Amino acid sequence: MQNHSQVSPPPPRRWLQGGSVARALLGGLFALGLVAGCERIAFYSTGRPPPDSNEGSTTASSSSGGSSGDPTGGMGTVTRATLIDAIATCNLELLDTFQKAAQELSTAAAKAQTDPQARAEAQAAWSKTIDLWQRAEPFQFGPGGPTNTPGGQGLRDTLYSWPLVSRCLVEQNIVSKAYEAADFGTTALINMRGLAAAEYLLFYTGTDNACNPASAINTSGSWAALSADELASRKAAYASSVSSGIAAMAGKLLGAWRPGEGDFDTQFRNAGKSGSAYTTEQMALNAVSDAMFHVEIHVKDQKLARPLGILDCANATCPEAVESRFAGRSRVHVRNNLVGFRMLMSGCKDGEGVGFDDVLTALGATALAEKMSADVNGAIAAADAVPSDDLAQALAQNPESVKQLHDAVKRITDSLKTEFVTVLDLELPQTVEGDND
Fold it and tell me: Fewest C-beta atoms under 10 Å: which of 53, 302, 349, 435?
């Protein structure tokens, strides 16, 4: 493979002046073998300004979205800056609402620790909190994103580590009472705390454990020595500890974004300007695009394809691989992931704001914008059509409904990793490159 470090960039082009320009550019790069399979070449990932020195002022007319037919609130144009501002506002509102719900969970779990009759209230608070978090999952860029991304602090996993979970580790902590440490909820291994651990502690009433018979809690008899009442009491105390940690980490994530605190919001809105973690606006949008691939990697593959037996499953189906095994909300989680994706694709407030569909329309790719918006709504409808909130039950009772949901999500991701990134001149995440599924 040739060394691409000496390859000159393509001629300057306007990002929002016609989809044919972006398609022609990408087509030329594919023909030269400079995209897919070699080094990732993109102006926004090099640290250099893009060839278009006026990227922030490039505009295009749009007539899609918005209750008044104008998604820009009277501006009449869509720019990269317009979209970035809309995403930033949406993100802050969502994280603020999530943080408030997390605080309610912490309060409810603390109450349930001393009053077993309040457990149902804590369960309802957990459901409200996880529903909001599932909507926020496709927003994992900036502080919520991985530490190897611009501004990334890896805060997502401290709140919800699924699919990295370990019931056995949680049960070992029940025996050892490690959860009694004051900082346990914010410093313990991520698969010992967070919303996934809280789900098990608040919803599972069984007295068995998932550890190997050779595990110390079984060979020593320390687990068996716990009465049902003592086990329930320790689970409630553990749930209160991790719920307090969830509230703290939710506050940390919100604070990392909020103006006047960490203020990554300003860095994101000021992409391409001095002081921002994003050297160009295109780089910021690519970070958002990468986060949107949650619907491909986590939703389509891990939450649906694996339980269906399509991927990484040695049996006809693998119902044990479903998310939310204790609260039985795996279908609801998928639906909320799709709602979160729609907030980015079509705009917040049920698509009334500025979203990527408005940019696609501005580029002349109206058909693609309409198709992807319709496909997202179709996938949400398919989720609603699954007859049980627990996908494991749905697999047993009506597997075709789960398959139809998978296929509906796949229609979104097929467009996301082909026409969407091509028209918008975005890079695929490295975890998706070469994936033709």
Answer: 53
